[in-house]
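in:
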């Protein structure tokens, strides 16, 4: 008789929690719940109950389990969970998932063919973000549930993905339920930390009390609780210790031995027989094995040796049975409820509970356990020939069980290196750590070097550094020294990309010390590339704040950059000759940045060479990087985004969400400069939070700057200020984006508010920063807008700034050519050459076709000089600019255009439109468009004189509008009116 309970007992509070979570998810508010408890305590039963209740609500359910065999299999629970859903329902084809399919290809078999470029490893955060988006799509209508069981057995990659989902699930219609044992490790750390952060609920399942044990026994026997014999109840309560699984195991043993039997008057319990000891589960399984046929018993002992989950192939290799006998014995074991087919893999079986395999192994004496493990390892090695990663881990586990630590270490180390090469650095670190602990003394250092690389690539730079620093000395130039030097170089590259400059320098010094005075050319090239990239970062002072590494405009700074460029070029050529294509691509990428100083043709030539090397050696990530940088240069030169769109396609094909976000940031900025503000806003809204979740810090900062620049170019000062606060909090003012922040964002924002002095101050700040730091941004105003404003204001430095910009590569970019062309026109008009001035305006207009907002700003700025010097068509320019800025809602500039026209004696029709921009409440109160223009500015609490200057009206007119506004809105005083304006601006 099968002694299993059809109901869950003693878990009412946990079921209520899961019901509340399902209700919340159905309303769009995500939840995460962790169920923690010892083996057999009922975690999986509760998970299954939550699945049934989700099915009742028509919610999609995805269910996966970590392997209990001890094998490190990246993402196994996630693959199984998605497969459990998509086998029946098919993979979703929602267009929203299109950018995420390459990242999900490793989890969804249907999406694997041709989605991820060879050689590119999807980052954990990219994969986690993609999974989050997939779950959100699945739960869009009613919510969805993902159940991940036995997380304590999960690989580190799965734990990292689960942590990401837990931290970001709150606003999505997704319930994540995880089960785990209370064993120290990453899974328990995750659950406890998530509970502490209030991002998850944690429930520790306690043993059942005596009443619940009786209820469970009654459910198993299909009787009322009062019909369970008291002696049987006492027996189960004493020896099962409240563990539901042990209740069932011991009850099954009582039934099998006849100590518990059904009579005419109900169930009877016989007191005779050997009392079960606290290890009764082991003895119970030993007795059950004794009652099975010998071949089935032997097969189950072998299976238990292979782990809680085992493959038919491995079992066949160890037992030597043919398929007919093998499957007959498997059926017999299944029929008595000991094992069951694994739903996640057609050629695998699992024990009904992991404790079952443990109990079966424990029923053998230790020497017999070791002998069986040794026999199994040898059989698998002989049958497989070339071992797969999973087989190699299984053999390592068996060798360890047989007592051969060194053999186990070698197998763990081999599969760890394979995983490191495949990009699964977290799992590689786990396996290499195991190998290191088991390795022979003469092999431990080599494993430690590989482990350090794995830790660095997993983002654990401190652990990597500690491992490398603890290695014993190695003679300079020896094989061991070269291997360690390479590891130091790789860790230095990771540290440089993470902007951990001091750590990068320490690793470089260590590598050079190991290589000695005469490293081989390819070794020197790898170090030179890291040093070159490191030199471009703004150095950090003791407080972590940016300080100047080089004065790029000074002689020392120019010499240093020239030296870095010579070194990078030598490294690129050497790396190509010595068969180091990755180093070559890194060097050409560095050269492309350094050579911009001499022009974009040379920079593009470096990138084209990088592209050629990447394509020749199938380095997908560097190919995409080259295309992105070529697209960026093309956009800066012409203002067009065609090549950027091509680069975006390449990033999508590569499967890199981080690179895709980077391209989207550039496309968003291109849209801002092109006046396509809705498109820019859409990209920012789609990508800015996702980039933060991906920890894609440089792109996240750039997107925040795009958001601020978008507000600045629309003349929305409060939105600009709020966006800049977020930019600063993300470390933007300690990044290389400062010139763009000052020149492209804040200076243009000041001009949208008709505050030319503040605009010039921002441009001066950008210029000062660029003179102290290596900077490769050319849209900061230094090469276009700055010289124009200086010339318009008649400053002596204007002509010099103009000549410097014109001679610079930055002066050849379309955005800057437009402003420099207008500066040329002003100078020619001032020098009495009206025809030359007219031609210069026409030429600037051709460069400005893709920048409508900037072009109309240039017309507004230049018109006053044209009026003063009697050249060009200033009245027509001002009318055009006024129309554009009025329609765009940039009222200060539109008002300034009207004021200049009036001063020139040109008739200007009164603007009576704009009522549609007034909020309904203010319209009802009778506020006029002109009064509303004043009202909007009050959010910043300016004085009447400032308002008058911004709107080009008299202070007396401002006073009249203020009085009217206070009367119409019922504001008691000016302060109340300003507060109302700020409230409307935030709405």
């Amino acid at each position: 008789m099968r002694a299993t309970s059809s109901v869950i007992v003693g878990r009412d509070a946990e079921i209520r929690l899961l019901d509340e979570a399902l209700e919340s998810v159905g309303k769009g508010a995500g939840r995460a719940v962790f169920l923690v408890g010892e083996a057999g305590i009922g975690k999986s039963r509760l998970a299954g109950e939550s699945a049934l209740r989700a099915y009742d609500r028509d919610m999609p359910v995805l269910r996966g389990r970590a392997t209990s065999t001890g094998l490190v299999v990246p993402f196994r629970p996630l693959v199984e969970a998605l497969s459990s859903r998509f086998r029946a329902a098919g993979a979703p084809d929602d267009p929203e998932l299109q950018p995420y399919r390459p990242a999900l290809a490793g989890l969804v078999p249907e999406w694997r063919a041709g989605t991820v470029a060879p050689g590119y490893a999807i980052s954990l955060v990219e994969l986690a973000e993609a999974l989050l988006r997939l779950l959100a799509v699945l739960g869009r209508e009613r919510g969805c549930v993902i159940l991940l069981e036995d997380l304590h057995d999960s690989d580190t990659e799965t734990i990292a993905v689960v942590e990401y989902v837990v931290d970001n699930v709150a606003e999505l219609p997704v319930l994540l339920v995880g089960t785990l044992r209370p064993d120290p490790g990453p899974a328990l750390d995750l659950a406890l930390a998530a509970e502490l952060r209030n991002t998850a609920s944690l429930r520790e399942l306690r043993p059942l009390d005596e009443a619940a044990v009786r209820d469970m026994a009654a459910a198993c026997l299909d009787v009322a609780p009062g019909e369970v014999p008291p002696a049987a109840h006492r027996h189960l309560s004493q020896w099962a210790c409240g563990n539901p699984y042990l209740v069932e195991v011991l009850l099954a043993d009582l039934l099998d031995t006849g100590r518990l039997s059904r009579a005419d008057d109900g169930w009877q319990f016989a007191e005779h027989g050997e009392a079960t000891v606290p290890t009764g589960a082991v003895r119970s399984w030993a007795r059950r094995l004794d009652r099975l046929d010998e071949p089935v018993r032997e097969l189950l002992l072998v299976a238990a040796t292979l782990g809680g989950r085992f493959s038919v192939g491995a079992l066949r290799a160890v037992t030597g049975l043919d398929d007919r006998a093998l499957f007959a014995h498997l059926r017999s074991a299944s029929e008595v409820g000991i094992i069951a087919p694994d739903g996640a893999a057609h050629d695998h079986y699992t024990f009904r509970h992991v404790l079952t395999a443990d109990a079966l192994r424990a029923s053998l004496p230790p020497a017999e356990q070791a002998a069986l493990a040794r026999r199994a390892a040898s059989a698998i090695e002989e049958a497989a020939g070339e071992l797969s990663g999973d087989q190699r881990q299984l053999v390592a586990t068996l060798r360890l069980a047989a007592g051969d630590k060194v053999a186990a270490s070698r197998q763990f180390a081999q599969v760890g290196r394979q995983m490191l090469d495949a990009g699964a650095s977290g799992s590689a670190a786990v396996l290499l750590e195991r190998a290191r602990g088991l390795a022979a003394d003469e092999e431990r250092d080599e494993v430690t070097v590989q482990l350090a690389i794995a830790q660095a690539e997993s983002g654990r730079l401190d652990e990597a550094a500690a491992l490398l620093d603890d290695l014993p000395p190695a003679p300079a130039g020896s094989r061991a020294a070269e291997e360690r030097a390479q590891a130091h170089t790789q860790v230095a590259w990771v540290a440089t990309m993470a902007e951990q400059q001091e750590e990068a320098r320490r690793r470089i010094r260590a590598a050079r010390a190991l290589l000695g005075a005469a490293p081989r050319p390819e070794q020197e090239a790898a170090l030179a590339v890291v040093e070159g990239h490191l030199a471009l970062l703004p150095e950090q002072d003791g407080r972590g704040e940016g300080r100047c590494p080089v004065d790029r405009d000074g002689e020392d700074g120019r010499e240093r950059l020239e030296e870095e460029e010579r070194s990078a070029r030598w490294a690129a050529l050497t790396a190509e000759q010595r068969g180091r294509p990755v180093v070559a691509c890194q060097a050409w990428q560095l050269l492309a940045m350094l050579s911009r100083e001499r022009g974009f043709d040379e920079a593009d030539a470096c990138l084209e060479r990088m592209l050629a090397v990447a394509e020749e050696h199938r380095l997908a990530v560097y190919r995409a990087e080259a295309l992105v940088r070529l697209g960026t240069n093309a956009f800066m030169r012409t203002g067009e985004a065609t090549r950027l769109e091509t680069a975006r396609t390449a990033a999508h094909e590569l499967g890199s969400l981080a690179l895709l976000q980077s391209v989207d940031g550039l496309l968003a900025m291109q849209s801002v400069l092109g006046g396509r503000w809705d498109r820019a806003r859409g990209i920012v809204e789609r990508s800015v939070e996702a980039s933060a979740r991906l920890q894609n810090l440089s792109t996240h900062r750039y997107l925040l700057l795009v958001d601020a620049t978008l507000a600045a170019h629309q003349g929305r000062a409060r939105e600009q200020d709020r966006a800049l606060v977020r930019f600063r909090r993300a470390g933007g003012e300690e990044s290389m984006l400062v010139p763009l922040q000052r020149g492209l964002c804040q200076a243009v924002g000041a001009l949208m508010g008709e505050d030319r002095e503040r605009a010039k101050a921002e441009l001066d700040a950008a210029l000062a920063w660029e003179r102290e730091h290596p900077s490769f941004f050319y849209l900061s105003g230094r090469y276009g807008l700055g010289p124009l404003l200086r010339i318009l204001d008649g400053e002596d430095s204007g002509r010099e700034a103009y000549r410097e910009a014109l001679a610079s590569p930055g002066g050849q970019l379309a955005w800057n050519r437009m402003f420099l062309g207008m500066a040329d026109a002003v100078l020619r008009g001032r020098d009495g050459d009206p025809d030359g001035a007219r031609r210069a305006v026409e030429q600037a207009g051709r460069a400005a076709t893709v920048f409508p907002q900037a072009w109309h700003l240039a017309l507004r700025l230049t018109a006053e000089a044209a009026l003063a010097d009697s050249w060009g068509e200033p009245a027509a320019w001002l009318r055009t600019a006024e129309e554009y800025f009025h329609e765009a809602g940039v009222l200060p500039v539109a008002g300034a255009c009207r004021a200049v026209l009036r001063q020139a004696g040109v008739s200007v029709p009164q603007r009576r439109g704009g009522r549609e921009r007034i909020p309904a409440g203010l319209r009802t109160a009778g506020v006029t468009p002109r009064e509303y223009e004043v009202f909007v500015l009050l959010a910043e609490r300016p004085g009447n004189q400032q308002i008058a200057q911004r709107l080009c009206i008299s202070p007396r007119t401002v006073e009249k509008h203020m009085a009217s506004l206070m009367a119409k809105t019922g504001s008691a005083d000016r302060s109340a009116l300003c507060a109302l304006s700020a409230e409307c601006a935030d709405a």
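note: The longest strand covers residues 174-180.
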